Amino acid sequence: MQKSFTTRTVTAIVCGVIATAGFAASHGGGENKSVEARHAMMQMIAYHTGILGGIAKGEMDYDSAMVDAAAMNIASLAAMDRATLWIEGTEQGAAADSRAKPEIWSDPEGFGAAFEKLETAASALVGASDAAAVGAGMGDLGGACKACHETYRGPEN
Amino acid sequence: MQKSFTTRTVTAIVCGVIATAGFAASHGGGENKSVEARHAMMQMIAYHTGILGGIAKGEMDYDSAMVDAAAMNIASLAAMDRATLWIEGTEQGAAADSRAKPEIWSDPEGFGAAFEKLETAASALVGASDAAAVGAGMGDLGGACKACHETYRGPEN
């Protein structure tokens, strides 16, 4: 039976959109792709943290627009909905490349609180008016990352 | 001269946070890392678009929480501050792996409008109540991606 118009249209759109991103839309097999997606989130957080740290240390010129952008972007990333990213069955050992500890699923409130801590620390850096102010906020920012990793991230694979 | 307490603290925090992300905090050389970071953003958008497309096509069960999470996450990504991601001097040919066309910097209003189109299309999918409703919104979503790519993304490297 010929696929409906909607199915063919959606297929064409989705394939066209994601083809060059190398996303293999396997039948119902999205779990491992969730690991890749959350690692991408972490890479974006690390990138923006590096900008703030570079400015704090004087390795990059202080730039208020870059400070605000980096801080807001980290806060946005920390506030994202985790339902699509930490899918059941993707803990370390169950999904390739995953370092997710089972506590993520057994203690969702704690996991959520860790992200809120990151969001708060990042938001506090918006408007930091010079390198010293950025530096003053890095403690809470790095502390949020560290605390979450200690509890919810396993060893390197 | 010994580094100040602040510098040492910030260094320790930043290195500890980002070491396992493989982020090489080279002296002032963040430009190429911006390409990697925006590709991570695009990967996250593609991943979430794939979830919505999979649900629309019936390849994945309809799940309202997943639909809302995917739609909201795409909207959040589309709304991120681009100052840290599309840095001057990172167009295709100038930065490794970049496919960014110069129009991104010569037509920032147009580039911004393209992201607003994506944010609007994604936001419209929040609350889509069944697979058909998700399918109905995929046209605008895919159309936003396609339109931006046609104008601001160069050929594969």
Automatic annotation (TrEMBL), chains A, B:
The record ties this protein, via InterPro entries, to:
Cyt_c/b562, Cyt_c_II, Cyt_c_prime_subgr
Q: Which Gene3D superfamilies match?
A: Cytochrome c/b562
- Which Pfam families is this protein grouped with? Cytochrom_C_2
Signal peptide stretch: 1-24
Name the keywords, alphabetized: Signal
Please verify whether the record's keywords include Signal: yes
Q: What is the name attached to this protein's record?
A: C-type cytochrome
